[in-house]
Amino acid sequence: MPASVGELWLDALERLCGRAAHELKGALNGVAVNLEVVRSRCERAGTAATAVASYANSASDQLGIVIETTEALLALSRSARTPTDIARLTRHVHALVGPAARSQGRRFDLTGPLDVLGATSVDADSARLAIAASALSAADAWSHVVCHGETNGTGPTLRLECRDAEPASCCIDGAIVDAVSREGIQVHVDSSTISITFPRSGA
Amino acid sequence: MKHVNAKILIADDEQSITAGLSAILADEGYSVDIAGDGQKALERLSDDRYGVVLADLKMPKIDGLSLLRELQTKEIPTECIIITGQATVDSAVQAMQQGAYDYIEKPLNAEKLNRLKALIPKALEKFNVQQKNRELTSRLEGLTHYGELTGQSEAMRGVYQIIDAVAPSTASVLILGESGTGKELVARALHAKSDRSKGPFFALNCAALPKEILENELFGHEKGAFTGSITEKPGAFEMASGGTIFLDEVAEMPPDIQVKLLRAIESRQVRRLGGKKEISVDIRIVAATNKDLQKAIAEQELREDLYYRLAVVEIVLPPLRERMDDMQLLANEFLARFSSQNGKQISDFDTAAWDWILSYHWPGNVRELKNAVERAVIMARGDKISVVDIMPRHLRSAGEVPTSLTIPVGSSVSDARRQLALRTLASTGGDAVRAAKLLGVSVEDVRRDVLALVNAGPQSEDDGDESSAAVNGKHARPDMPSVARPLPAKKPVPKKR
After folding, report:
1. Would you call B24 and A33 a contact, using CB atoms and an 8 Å cutoff?
2. Least confident of B167-176, B219-228, B399-408, B422-431
3. Confidence bin at B451 (pLDDT 50/70/90)
4. Interval A62-74: pLDDT, tens
5. Residue A34: how many CA atoms within 13 Å on its side-chain side?
6. N- or C-end of chain B: fewer Cβ atoms within 10 A?
7. Distance between CA atoms of B461 and B313, rounded to whole angstroms?
C-alpha cells in the first residue's frame, strides 16, 4: 500500500527540520556570542559605541535569521489552509533550505517575482510536499539552484533551475511524484530543472 | 597566569560566531586568527605556531575530530579545545581520547564563554610546558657534553634534562650515586646553569672532616669562641651566600650538626660558633650521598626531616656499568686528554683493550676509568693502549695465575672446556684473541664459553678448584679478570672523537 501524502509530508518536514537545525543553533550561538562581546565591553568604563556597534548589528542579524527560520518552521508545521499561497509556501521552504545550503558553500536562491504563482486550491499537504521534496532534492544534487515562478497555458509553475556548469543527476522519490500527481500537481525532473506545475485555480 | 599575545586559532565556519569569539578573546589579550574550515585550519597550524586551537566539531572539508587526528599524525604542537554543538557524550569522549585538551558544548552562552576563558590559560600553560620540553629534548638530542659532564646515553640525557629544569629554581637538590659517578660535576652544572652562577660555589665533604672542624667549616666562629680562635672566621654558609653550597657525603654528617643544618635550611640564618647574632644567608643547597638513604634513615644515621628538606629534587646518577653507550666516549676523551698532557702520540686502544674496557664492571665508575686511562697512557709504549696497560695491576698479574687446572671427576666435558677457556683467558690478561690462539678455537668460542660460565652463576664459581674465577666484581680474585657482565660481542673499534 503506497504511503499517504500525510506520511510523506511528515517525512519531508522532518528532513527540513534537520536541515534548519544547524543553522538555527548557529544563529542562536551567534546572538549569544555577539551579545557577550557587547555586554563585556559595556561593563568597561568609557567604551565607545563604535566598539560594540558591529557586534550588536551582528547579533541583530543573527536574531533575524532565528526569527525567519522559526516562523518558517512553525508555518510549515501548522495544519495548512486551502487555498494555499504558493509563493509564501516557497519562501518558507527557502528559509529552511537556503541558509543550510549557504553554510555548505552552495546556493539556493529565489529570483524574480513569485507572487505570479498565486494560490492553489489543491490539497495543501500535497502542495507543501511537492515544493519541499523538490527543494530538498535540488539542494542535495546541485550546488547552485535558482527558483522562480511563471504562469503558462498549463498552470502556475515553480521552476528550480540548476546553474551548475555540469549538472549532476537529480531525482525525486517516485512515491512522492505519484502521490502529488493524484492531487493534480505535476512534478517533472530533467537534466537541470525541476518543474512543479499546479492546476489552475478552479480546475 | 596571563598569556598576553599568545596565539589562538578559531576554526569554525560560522562567521557570526567566529567574529564574536575572536573579539572576546582579543579583549582577553590574545592574538586571534580565524580559519573558515578544517582544511584552512590545518594549513595555518602547519605554517604558524598556535598555543590553542578552538575547533568546531562540525566544519566543512575537515571536521573537528579529523583535524585532531591530523594534528596528531603530523605532530603539530598545539592544544585543541573542541566546540561541539552535538552534545553527545560519545563525540566529546572521542575528542578527549584523541588528545583534545577539553571541549565546550554549544550553546555558547555567557556561562560557557566564561568557562572557555578560564580553560584557555590552562591549555596555554600546558602548551608552553610541552613546548619547553620539546625544545629541551631536541637540544639534548645528540649532546655528548653538558657542563663538565660527559655522556650521551639515555640515562645521562635524563640527568641533563633534570638539571636544566631544576637549575633556575632555588629548590634544594639531592644527588644520589655511587662513588666516582660525577656528583660534584652535577652540583657544579646546577650552579653554572642557575641565576647564582656569578655567585660562589662552595663544596664541602662532610665525611672528610672531624665533627668539630666540620661544624666550624660550615658555620664559622667568632673570635675567642674556643682556644686558639684568635680571629673570627665566616663559615661555608656565609661564604657561599649568593651562590651554591655543595655538601658531599651528607649522610656522614654527625647527628647534632644535622640539626643545625636543618635549622639553617629552614630559617636561612646561621649562627657562628660562639656567636650571638643570627646571620642571614642566601644560599642554594645541593647535597650528595652514595649511601642507601632509606637504610640510613631507618638506622637513624640521617634525620628524616633533613632528608625531605634536602631532597626537594633528587637526581640519580647511573653507575658507569649502566652507561655502556658512554664508555667509549669517556675512554676516548680521557685518552686524548692524558695523551696531550703527557706529550704522547697515542691514538687508540687495541681490540683486546676495548674488549676489556667494555666488559669490566668499573666499581669506581668514571673516576676509575679516568685513572685507568691516565695510568695506561703513562705506561704505554706503542701508539695504542693494550689490555695490559689499561687493566689494573691487581687484575692483570697473569704470572700469578696457576698454569694448571684441576677438573674434578664427574665434571661434564662442556664444563671442563669452559673452565679451561676462562683460565686461559685469565692467563693472557683478558686477551681473548691470544686465549683463542692458545686454545686453538675461535675468539667467539672463547667468548661463548666465558659467557656460559658467567651465566651459570655461583655454582660455577664454587665448582672446580682454586682456579675458578669470580664472576662478580665484588668477589673478583686477583688472578682473574673481573667480569661483571657477559663479554659483549666484539664491537667495531670505536673511532676517537
Report:
1. yes
2. B399-408
3. low
4. 999 999 999 999 9
5. 24
6. N
7. 42
Cβ B184 vs Cβ B175: under 8 Å: no
- Put simply, the chain B residues between 92 and 111 with a CB less than 8 A from any chain A CB are 106-110
What is the C-alpha to C-alpha distance for residues B131 and B143, in angstroms, rounded to an integer? 19
Nearest to B247, CA basis, from B257, B273, B298: B257
Query: B116 to chain A: nearest residue by CA?
Result: A33
- Partners of B356 in the beta sheet? none
Q: Contacts of residue A106 in chain B, CB cutoff 8 Å?
A: none
Instruction: Check residue B324 and give its pLDDT.
Output: 82
Task: Give the model's pLDDT for residue B485.
Answer: 34
Which residues of chain A have a CB within 8 Å of the CB of B14?
A: 26, 29-30, 103
Q: Is the pLDDT of residue B478 over 70?
A: no
Element (H, E) at A150: strand A144-152
In order of A159, B75, B188, the CA distances from A84 in angstroms are 17, 59, 91
A113 near A149, Cβ under 8 Å? yes
- CB proximity under 8 Å: B 22-51 to A: 23-24, 27
Query: Helices B110-140 & B154-166, crossing angle to 10 degrees?
Result: 130
Contact list, B21 vs chain A (CB under 8 Å): 33
d(CA B295, CA B290): 12
Average pLDDT over every residue of B458-473: 31
List the end-to-end C-alpha distance of chain B, in Å, as a whole number.
46
For testing the chain A interface, which of B14, B83, B117 should be mutated: the one with the most A CBs within 10 Å? B14
Smallest Cβ–Cβ distance between A34 and the set B13, B16, B106 belongs to: B16
Alpha helices in B301-409 (DSSP H): 304-310, 324-341, 351-359, 365-379, 387-390, 393-396
Residue B421: pLDDT above 90?
A: no
The 10s digit of each residue's pLDDT in A15-39 is 999 989 888 888 999 999 999 999 9
Kindly state the average pLDDT of the residues B69-86: 87
Q: What is the DSSP letter of B494?
A: P
From B83, which residue of chain A is nearest by alpha-carbon distance?
A29
Of the candidates B19, B85, B107, which has its C-beta nearest A32's C-beta? B107
Residues of A in contact with B23 (CB under 8 A): 37, 55
How many angstroms separate the CA atoms of B477 and A2, rounded? 100
- What is the pTM assigned to this prediction? 0.50
Selected for mutation to probe chain B from A19, A25, A33 (highest B CB count within 10 Å) is: A33
Residue A144 burial class via C-beta count within 10 angstroms: exposed 0-12, middle 13-18, buried 19 and up: middle
According to DSSP, the residues that pair with B173 across neighbouring strands are: B286, B313
B432-439 and B413-427 helices cross at what angle (nearest 10)? 130
Question: For residue B472, is pLDDT > 60?
Answer: no
Cβ-contact B106, B84 below 8 angstroms:
yes
